[in-house]
Amino acid sequence: MPLIRAWLEAANQPECDFPLNNLPLGVFSTGGTYRCGVAIGDQILDATGLEEAGLLRLGDMPVLDQPGWNKLMALGPAVWAALRARLTDLLREAAPEQDQVAPFLHPMHGARMHMPFTVAEFTDFYAGRHHATNVGTMFRGAENALPPNWLHIPIGYNGRASSVVVSGSPVRRPWGQIKGPDDAKPRFAPSARFDLELELGAIVGQASNGPVTVAEADQMIFGYVLLNDWSARDIQAWEYQPLGPFQAKATATSISPWIIMRAALEPFRVSTPAREVPLLPHLQERGPMLYDIALQVDLTSHDGQSVTIARTNYREMYYSSAQQLAHHTTSGCPMRVGDLLGSGTISGPTKDSRGSLLELGWGGKEPIQAGGITRSFLEDGDTITLRGATQGDGYRIGFGTCEGTVLPALTDPYER
After folding, report:
1. Is 131 an active-site residue?
2. Cα torsion angle, 137, 142, 145, 151, sign
3. Among residues 130, 131, 327, 328, which one is catalytic?
């Protein structure tokens, strides 16, 4: 699909994250109330204002009168398509309503971004083969790197929706129970092995009340965000047996402020990798279910030094979000509008394509060194920035950034 030219020239530049082909959805403010907005070029279009003015009509009642896109999600794919079609008509080159739309544009640099939707539930998966193999090799050896079930089902756990935060929110180093291999007993202390996880988050836009197929699950996905599932590796090492992650993953999960709708990514679908173990029928895909999305992780130290520490691609995943969602429903588990599914850490086959410091520094044994920065795990004051984009014909579909800065642990979390 070629570039759809907009009457805002910034949106037509090849390096722009937000051309008319994209139309990502967020929530913003410019000193007043929160508004639903659409990114276009270097501007934010006030979609709530358009609806109030009668230029955007999506139902018999207002849809964008709340600070979040959940209400629109619940109306289903036909309304999602109608939104994109109407916005395209209003913003395309030579659109007749330019003068009416222009007052609803706000410069991006002067706006504050907020959570783009209300997270109903959060589930995180462990669905990248390179990541799972790397982590398993570190702890169990290469011969037993993957658990016996890994090639059969997308492994996941239920996380905390309450700790999902929007990009730009600081993340405080957590306290927790820690026990090293040579410690006689556990101690309560700040995490010394605090880490990032490069992921993509899928947003469920339609509810379910029973098992769904992979194809049906794909149609239920409203859009995607960048996701950093911050992880305290030392807390996790002590607590995860036998039931898996708990407090080690409950500190925070950061997401990018712009929802990239599934429709914007349709031209960039790619297939999941060949299966060495055939999947059971209910998890098999009948078409490409991943996307060709280039991803990178930047680390900026407290003194302003910034380096790129990893580059990879979402196409490296073993299980797609649609497969994860379909698997989630097999027990009859109801899915809700606004459920968030983390892809699992996205790593590639090379050392510089690993999506966590645990892998990049091989558990602290091989600290990364780049541009004067040496790291095994995150230090106080470090800022992690995730970026993602897919390349079209003369344009790109960008995700913007997902950013968070590590704050020092509280001196005493129980001091009152």
Report:
1. yes
2. positive
3. 131
